[in-house]
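Assemble and predict.
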Amino acid sequence: MSPKRPTYALVDCNSFYCSCERLFRPELRQVPVVVLSNNDGCVIARTPEAKALGIKMGDPFFKIRDALKAKGVVAFSSNYELYGDISSRVQRTIESLAPRVEVYSIDESFADLTGIAEPLGDFARQIQARVRSWTGMPVGIGIGHTKTLAKAAQHASKLYKERTGGVVDLRADHAVEWLLKRMPTQEVWGVGRRISVRLEADGVTTAWQLANTDPKTIRQRYGVVLERTVRELTGEPCIELQEAEPDRQAICTSRMFGERVTTLEAMREAVASYMHRATQKLRKQQSLTAVFRVAVLTSPFGDGPKYANSVMCYPPYPTDDVLLLTRAAMEGLEVIWRDGYRYSKAEILLMDLRKRGEFTGDLFTPSQPARSDDLMRVLDLINVKFGKNALHSGRMPIDATWAMKREMMSRSYTTSINQLMRFKAL
DNA sequence: TCTGGGGTCCTAGGACCC
DNA sequence: TCTGGGGTCCTAGGACCC
């Protein structure tokens, strides 16, 4: 084995959202905890204790509310401000030890361990211990020669936590074989429900069988994505580490309402609010949008009349000006709005994003005037200083009737001076 | 009453061009 | 009788991820 052979670690926070809540509620360490989606809709994170009680991902909260209470499960509304801040602390801690890190999601990072001194198992335990001591977050770590194998190793570290202490080194061939033989295809990174059903019909049920199919045949029957997965399972790297986070190609803000919207006026407020949020993300990555889409939808559930429609809107020039975009969105909304429905959701999708400067105006296509730039700069400065929604367009309400329901939300302990943790001396 | 949100990549097919 | 071929761009839809 060449010492240069690529080696990756996947660092994964255990039940991330739930663990964030537990950080500031130590009395819940042994108590089953779940975190709910927006509007307290359904379960999106569970501690092992909650899993053991049979609570499933996606269980609608209103159906299991009483059962949760009876079993002593504590439920939280999702608090993304808190999770986002804890996440960046964990990432910075990992980066203090590993030179090259890809932030893969809010609770997972890949680290490139190529060339790091053996034993790597000890190095991984060092990361684990430092994250625990600096942030309080428990993490599991998997090591492999490809990202897909590192993922599989991390999966095993969770499954066999007692034996492994949450660190699995899956570089040896016999270890790979042992694990993949016990791993259903659907647990493999990149194999979802649809593909696993088709694979099963082809007689492939374990990751080991998948690793031993002919990649060319897989490409023909399933496409290049699965082919890469197969190669990665055999130890051939096909997916590289992405250190720099690429700019988004589309920015979407869509949310269910806390209660149904039935008037155009309320829908205008909602669309303006979503545009406010979407353009903040847009300006953060310093892009301009040339086309966007506004959509309104009724709930797919229940037996009320259903309606969903969307419209593409074209601002006069690529822009990040929330006022201009909000006006255009209001015109678009007029086109698709129909009275008589109980709307459950609206959506803003900013598309055709361009970097500033990439777009060159000419005589006939103007570009954004400097006063818009100035105004947006001031808007963002004020909102950084006084909170995300301190300054906003007049269309956006201060207190909306349709706002998200979050009845069980914890404090923003780490990001708001008014919500710090409090102690009482006895 | 009440069922998440935000992304990515790939492919197929149509329009259009020379 | 015989009815091109290759390229690009765009869009819609499907699959996946957390």
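The mean pLDDT of chain A is 92.
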